Amino acid sequence: MPPRKRSTPANPWHVVPEIKRAEEALTQTEARLSALAPAPSPEHARKAVVDAAVSALRSDGTPIPADIGQRAAAAYTEALAPVAEREALTTAVDSLKRHIVYLRTRHTEPVLATLAGQLNDLMSEVRGILGTHGRIVDGETAIDAGPEAVDAFTRLRAIVNEVDALRATQRNVLRDVVDTGVLNAIYQAGHDQFSDVTLHPLPADVKRVIAGTRRRNVAFLIFAAESGRHWIPTSVDELTADASGAVDIGSADDGSSASSFNH
Questions:
Q1: Which pLDDT value is given to residue 246?
Q2: Is 35 exposed, middle or buried (0-12, 13-18, 19+ CB in 10 A)?
C-alpha cells in the first residue's frame, strides 16, 4: 500500500486563517525580540557620560567638557530608540498571546470539525479493510490469511498510531479552551472518544484503554470502527452535552489533577 500523509496538521489551529496569521506574527515578533542586543537604559547612558567626565577630571584634571550637557542628553536620546523597540515588541508579544487565546475560544468548532473529518476517514478505511479481509485482529491471523491480509494488518496498525495522534491533538485543542477539571471527568468516562457512553456501556477492554492501563491496538480499532460511536465531538457544547448527567461538569477542580490517559 502507498504511504499516507499524516492525518493531523503540524498545528491544528492553522485551519483557521485568523489564528494562523496571529500565531505566525507571534513567532516572528518573539524571534525579533530575542534577537535584540542588550541596551542600556536612557538614564544609564546619560549617567555613563557624566561619570566618565567626572572620572577624567578626578584622575588627570581634564576639565568637564563645555558641552557635557549636550553629550549627556545625546546619549540619553540615542538610548531611547532600542528601549522603545524592546517595549513595543514586548507589548506586541503579550497582546498577540491574549488575542490568540480569544481566537481559539471563538474558533474551536472548525478545528474540531477538521479532526472529526480525519477520524471519520480513518474509520471508513478500517471498515473497508474489514469488508475485504475480515476481522484480522492480530499478526498470526493475518499471516494465515496471506500476504494481502498481512499488508492490511500492517495498515491497521499504522491507523492505530494515526488515531493516537488525532486524540492527542484533540486533547491539546480542548485543553486550550476547557477547564482541566471538567476535561478530566470527561476523559475518565470516555465521552471524548465514544458517544452515548452512559446509555451504552463500553466493553471492559475498551474501558481499560480509556483508563490508560492498555494502549490502543488493532482490536480496539476494529471495535471503534464497527461501533459507529467512535467520534471527535465538533464543538465543546456537543462534548459536554453528551457527557451531561454522567459526569459533574459543573464542579471543576483547580486544574492540578492529571488525566489518567495521555499520549
A1: 55
A2: exposed
> 194-229: buried (b, 16+ CB within 10 Å) or exposed (e) per residue?
bbebeeeebeeebeebbeeeeebebbbbbbbbebee
What are 17's strand-pairing partners?
none
CA atoms of 263 and 249, how far apart (whole Å): 23
* 156-211 residue pLDDT tens: 999 999 999 999 999 999 998 888 988 999 999 999 999 999 888 999 999 999 99
d(CA 81, CA 75): 11
